[in-house]
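dumping this here before i forget
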Amino acid sequence: MNKTKLLVSAFSLFVASISAQENKEKTKELNEVSIVKEKKAVEQKADRTIFEFASQAHLNSGSVLEGMKKLPGLVASDVAGMMYQGKQLDVFMDGRPMNITTNELNAFLEGMPANSVERIEIVTNPGAEFPATSGGAILNIITNKKAKNYLSATYTNSTNITAYDHTRWRTNNSVMLSAKNKLFGWQLNVGQNYGERAMWSDVLKQESGTTTILSDNKTERINRGLYGKTALTFDLGKDRLLLNYDVFYNRNNSFADAMGTRSDNTVFETSDKGSTLNLRQDAVVTYQKRFENKARKLDFRFNYGQNDVDFNLKSYLTDLNVLDNASVQNFFNFKTDYSQPIKLLNEGKISFGGLYEKLFFEASNRGVQNLDYERSTASAYLELQTKWKKFDFTVGGRGENYDITGKTDTKALFPFKQTRFFPNASVQYNFMKQVYFSVNYNKKITLPSTTALNPNNTNYQNPNVGFEGNPQLQPTIFDNYEVKLSAFDYVFIGYNRSIGHNQVVQRITNTGNQTLNTNINVPELVVHNFNFGVPIPYMLFAKGISETTKMMSQGGVNPDKINFMYVYAGRQLHEIPGMDSKPFWIINLMSQIVLPTNIKWVTNFSYITSKGNYYYFVAQKPFNNSLDMSFSKKFLSDQLTVSVNFDDILNSNRSVFQSYNTPLYLSNKNDTRRFGFTLNYKIPTKNKLAKEDPNLLNKEKKEDNGTVIGN
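structure:
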């Protein structure tokens, strides 16, 4: 009873504090004709969760991938991809699909500095305006910043070191410049990164009471990257023209030493150097038509992207190339969206639009083409939103036509030529402002990524370990169901069920002592996910319930600056036919304490329990188990922010999995225990009347919740 009372009290107190803070901000707006609002670290919306990165020192001190792994509810694993609250994620950047997955995606995010990201939006219930190919959910990495009516500049440096067998350095630097005049606005964001990383991995075979080392690897990696993001915007009366060009260049080297036992019981040793060159380019033209009624919007967008990858693995022992593979991907996309308010019940909105895209992918081995893949998609959608009393209703549908063809060097791919309809619907009951209960359903599809289709090994190889894609993979159809109760952005409890038909999953099998890592289609896979999140103010224990309630009700507390702990827990179960599936729990605790002189101390603890199966991989030990701390403070009238971080303090972040129904055990340990600091300096301006202008980098349509989205 006492525990229940404490939990209810914590919920009520945080609700009261947010309400009081909103009233305080409104008063300030009336008195000073201006408003300064702190960005919330986490926001729960009806269809998405938003994580603020820019001002969160514990998230932006390393790479984007390292920051993402700290998000509550998100699981990023080398063996089974990326999921959020039980839903497979399709990764977007600034509203555009990246069209890469697994190892290639992880390598890209590992080479991208987290301080280049403003926020991450995870759209858990994509509506009809999003491509049906978004699958279960969308992770949208927003790199946009604010442009001002004067020249502004921001410099950021992040430096980290690890000390295992020897010291390794990771550093990145970036500069952001932006300005706006009467004719146009412009923005430039350039940066570089350098990272030394280490990984220790083992593949063991345990059968008949005997353990055999199939592969014992130590890999040293050196990653170097450059990136540039540019933007121009022209105001044409009420309309706006936006031009964007992004380029990312990565040159990654790996040095791997391995030993193991072959099937004939002889021992092998290898020493290899891997080299990966990746050039990714993206160009966008957007025209936004606006009307007298600002709620009417008409947008046109054309997007062209190219992704070139060259991979080479050379043996130091034989001085011969073990692997020599390359691929090139070209992507064209045109879409249009229109929305306007309509009179439907109390109020309503209609949205409709269309999309056509074309993707070409070619892969070659030692200069000989062995995959030619072509995909085209044409689609149209219609969605209605309306309100009636305390209810919000959304219903929509999207029709998509697919034409997928291709061939390997030996035979043609199974063609996929279909037209499908994808409905979506949601009902939300609003108890009061920012407190609601929602029910959602949507049908989606996931097309196999070119990374998974590529028949060539672009990862690593030794006599006992091999990787290859599967060019015959077929699309996956998802039926997604969700119910959620949410209050004031921070508190929620929910359950979702995702049914994947013909789902693509990673599988590791063995023939003797040789193992193969590839992807297969599973006839049906059902993921159940129950989760909740709740903040607990520490003042509840120090001052008691009555005194804390009094302070919060008087508006004397900013909920984003109080000392509190945020508790997240989720239970997932992956049901696969013919498999004795076991659930696992995801636990994340985030503590914020404001020390004297406004030093913010943030502690993050994450933990995923063992014995549950993550697709076909059964965790033998807890994984994603990490204790991280960061301390940050602002100086020079908030122009300079300094933060110090300590990650994986206990050196406990490692993974040990068994590949289901095989004698294979896979263990992996990276040099995750690191120490570092981050500096962010905003060059001050004397123009006190300057005000913010909208985002320039790929600004698209804004929904009622004010977030920038793409489809």
